[in-house]
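Entry:
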Amino acid sequence: MSTDRNKIPDELIKVIKTLLNLIVLLVFALLLLPVLFYNSDSINKFFFAAPPSEKTTSADPAVVSAGAVPVSLYWKAADLNEINDAKKLEQISYGKDLIAHTAKYLGPNGSVLHISNGMNCQNCHLDAGTKVFGNNYGSVASMYPIFRARSGVVEDINKRVNDCVERSLNGKALDTAGNEMQAIKAYIEYVGSNVEKGKKAAGSGFKDLAFMDRACDTEKGSAVYKTKCMSCHQANGEGLLTAGASEFTYPPLWGKHSYNDGAGLYRITNFAKYVKYNMPFGVTHDNVQLSDEEAWDVAAFVNSQMHPHKNTPKDWPDISKKPVDHPFGPYADKFSEHQHKYGPYKPIAAEQKKREETAKQKETASAKK
């Protein structure tokens, strides 16, 4: 009997130890669950963060378009305050000022040249080309020179800048060797200098916007314009000049002082993406005001108004590469010019994809022979 009595305390101790271990595990699990479910980004960073020597400044474009990039990984412009060379800083700062206040230097009353319509580069490239999904310059230095289907040739930064001057600013090309072009180029190259060559910066360009099943509606777009845009851009789209009339506080969206019909924003898909994630002014890509349909419709309304015309006979030498919304024929398909401009775009995109797949199959078959 005495032997059995001596065994009981040992068994109780084992049971108590087991219970204590279970309690500890349970408490640990309860503490961990909220982190796993409510702060998964933190967990990912903890377990999968790049080593300190591998700073991530860019991401795969496919990932960016899928919206899977954490906010911390979106591109941020290189800081001008880190430039130690005074001469270099002066040139780059001038380049930034030319982007932000183009009209002051190059507009109808410009202090250097009179070659543009009075808009600023910043009207299209927000925050002097540094805003996430605000048509920024994050990928310019890393991707150029690059082949562009619109021109059918490999373009450098000078060519790209002058395209904007001649189209979006409806002006005359800058001298590529001149101080202004060199300053603009220096600024663009510097702000994107933290992106690896050949990579696309996360948050550059425009954020994707799904096609609608219907065509864009200019009447609905007119209503959106009146309620969401007119207070800044005015009733007839002429924009709002500063007190000294040297530049626009809010740029004209149509009329003789606006971008011409050769500009990228004259394509409705570009304009819709731009306004969806940046307008009304102050909106960000993760805090929008317009619905998808409102963005498409107001883009159609604005681009249905009068814009200066630019002859571009050399654009899209391979017409099969024209974007689905390019508003001017000829085309490699049978869809009308009206549908190419206003949609619906899904049927055009489907046929374009089918055509590209057929071309790839032919190339593969030819390579095997």
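Confidence is low (pLDDT under 50) at residues 1-7, 34-67.
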